[in-house]
Amino acid sequence: MSTATKTVLKPLEDRVVVKALEAEQTTASGLVIPDTAKEKPQEGEVLAVGPGRWDDEGDKRIPLDVKVGDVVLYSKYGGTEVKYDGQEYLVLSARDLLAVVEK
Asked: Rounded to the nearest 5 degrees, what angle is found at the Cα of 49, between the Cα atoms of 62 and 4?
């Protein structure tokens, strides 16, 4: 198998695949935070977006408000952690997304 092979996860319906961004390593005063004391990150980069869920009539899909590349804030206990092809991802429902971070 080639090392150039890229694994692609394609979420279904209104789900989003997110790669969690690393939590801050130091405090504002410069103290290093050990791994055991770090809070679980709630910010991540959107890697894939599902096509959206069907409306109540089942006639059309409702598109999501995020796109690949967006940095989002998500619910602390939302989603499912998945390890695939040696990488860790978070698969979230669109309802677990709280905001898009604009920098």
From this structure: 155
Secondary structure element (H or E) that encloses residue 100, with its range = strand 97-101
Alpha-carbon distance 89 to 74, whole Å? 13
Within 10 Å of residue 13's Cβ, how many Cβ atoms?
14
Q: What is the DSSP letter of 66?
A: -
Q: pLDDT for 43-94, tens place per residue?
A: 999 999 999 999 998 899 999 999 999 999 999 888 999 999 899 999 999 9
- CB contact at 8 A, 84 and 93: no
> Could you tell me the domains of the chain?
15-21+40-100 (2.30.33.40)
Instruction: Report the distance separating Cα 92 and Cα 54, nearest Å.
Output: 17
56: CB partners within 8 A, 6+ apart: none
pTM of structure: 0.76
Residues constituting the chain: 103
